């Protein structure tokens, strides 16, 4: 079996699919595709099989409960300051301020999205 990164897909719980989709479109510029999967409403993040990385969905249903506790998903951003400004403009909350890790070459921060989930962002430090 070929060795790969172990995570292949994620789902972010939401209460209001339209509100959550608007939040992520505005903050990150993502486009989404709506689907019903196993009787649950989903809006899928962009994905191309030929590109590296994983994709996922915003998911609404009785088994999906937004939370600041539990798994934290990291989104890459080219400009962490601009992304955090967009989060605040969409009524998100900064939970962990921008922090530089020079040893590993990245900047991270965490925020609460429109649904109450803890989400992290990472910017690679240009050397």
TrEMBL record:
Residues 6-124 form the VOC domain. It comes from the Bacteria. Pfam families: Glyoxalase. This is VOC family protein.
């Amino acid at each position: 079996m070929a060795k790969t990164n172990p995570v292949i897909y994620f789902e972010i719980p939401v209460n209001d699919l339209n509100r959550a989709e608007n939040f992520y479109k505005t903050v990150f510029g993502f486009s989404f595709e709506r689907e019903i999967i196993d009787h649950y409403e989903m809006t899928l993040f962009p994905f191309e099989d030929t590109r590296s990385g994983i994709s996922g969905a915003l998911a609404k249903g009785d088994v999906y409960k937004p939370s600041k506790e539990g798994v934290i998903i990291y989104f890459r951003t080219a400009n962490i300051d601009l992304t955090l400004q967009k989060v605040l403009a969409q009524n998100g909350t900064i939970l962990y301020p921008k922090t530089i890790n020079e040893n590993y070459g990245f900047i991270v921060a965490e925020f609460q999205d429109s649904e109450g989930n803890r989400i992290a962002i990472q910017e690679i430090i240009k050397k």
